[in-house]
Description:
Elements: H1 2-29, H2 31-36, H3 41-47, E1 55-57, E2 64-71, E3 78-81, H4 85-92, E4 95-96, E5 100-101, H5 103-107, H6 109-112, H7 120-128, E6 137-140, H8 144-154, E7 159-164, E8 171-177, H9 190-202, H10 211-214, H11 224-233, E9 241-243, E10 247-249, E11 256-258, E12 270-272, H12 273-279, H13 282-292, H14 294-303, H15 327-334, H16 344-355, E13 366-370, E14 376-379, H17 398-414, E15 428-434, E16 443-450, E17 457-463, H18 475-490
Parallel strand pairs: 1-6
Antiparallel strand pairs: 1-2, 2-3, 4-5, 6-13, 7-8, 7-17, 9-12, 10-11, 13-14, 15-16, 16-17
Amino acid sequence: MTRSIRHTAWAVFVLFGLLFVNLNWLQVIQADDLARDERNRRQLLAEYEIQRGSITAGSGTQQRTIARSQDTQDQLRFQRVYSDGPTYAHVTGFHSFIYARTQLEQRYNEFLQGSSPDALFRNLADALQGRERQGDTVVTSIVPAVQEAAVQALGGQTGAIVAIDPRTGAVLAMVSSPTYDPNELSSHDGTAIREAWERLEADPANPRLNRATSELYAPGSTFKVVTAAALLERGGSPEDTFDDPPFLDLPQTTAQIGNFSSGRSCAGGTITLRRALEVSCNTTFGLIGLDIGADALVETAQSFGLNTDIEFDVPTATSRIPTELDPPQTAQSAIGQRDVRVSPLQMAMIAGAIGNGGVMMRPRLVTEVQDYAGRVLRDYPAEPQSIPSRDGSQAVSPGTAATLTDMMVGVVNNGTGTNAAIGGVQVAGKTGTAEQGEGQSPDVWFIGFAPAEAPRVAVAVVVEEGGNGGESGTGGGIAAPIARTVMAAALGI
Length: 493
């Protein structure tokens, strides 16, 4: 009898031990995973009981709320509402009870939900005084007038625009087209949300893709500023002369590089570096790439941030150049083709670094987070972009940056970028027309900054497959006028 009691006691003891372990496992080890599980309805209802913080654009009297929470009094109490949703969709992202969150809604979720460590004592005080918890406001650097000008200038063409303040890295506009309406994914109608999602997923244009940061393109001739920088950093001069053949036979292959026929084609004979950039001679820059060599080209590209992850407020793709190039690849890479791939954000940063005396600033979309009383909880000041290959933020020397600026002014005044000119303002820029696969029209580019002598805005524009120009579209004809509109808006012109 005693033995049976002892066995039973041990069995009960073991069961209690297992229960204790299980409870601790659930409450300590798995607690966070369970809380984040989308099937956790209690967590979902609790999240929607909180008035989520706003997302704003602009400052002072021009400040605009681009995302806010609205009290519905239904089971999911608060609903996310996006003012002019398609214009800011790739900035805000969406907040959906079915498909979770994207973009700033995801990155700053703790602040928006009022659950960040910064809000701990405030939330405790609110609980003691019986006040409802509120989320914090995320303040962006987006300037509504610049954002809206970019949307209108792009005019529904597929592509992207990024405008930054080169002095601070603040993003003034970030536009991706086509776009979508985040309100459709943030409603409380599950059927409508799923229908909208399925429609977006089936769209071959992929409207949810943020082309400004998450898509990589061949930069075409805009990359010639990097090739020119590589030469200048190694003692070259804008007045150095080079051969200007109509075609460049690539070593070790039967392939050739030709010049784009645009009415400003390179004339043959010899040409200066300055003029070759102005009229965008492919053959000359292919020769320059071969002359300086693969190592110099790759090193300079990496000094401008390629092959380095960008720390940014929304997901970004890493711009890249192969670190090992044979001679044909070197010549093709020198004109922004072959396997060179960049994001519009990266190209805006490159333009900004040239305009900023060679110093690249870290891009930032959020400037600060405020609590519901307007007090600053967290601020994100301007800071240089760390460039591992340069052990600092100086992409190129101040002298090289100044020389490049002067040459890029020539592109707008006397070359392929005349459509980017703004009356009364010196604009520095570079066009690009990047070849695609067979049967595809080229992607067209413009990068630049203004005023050239003291830039307040740097911009990158890419329009896929020639935009409205189709196979005859060029960077100077399609992208440059868009850039002009965006820069003028940023300058208040």
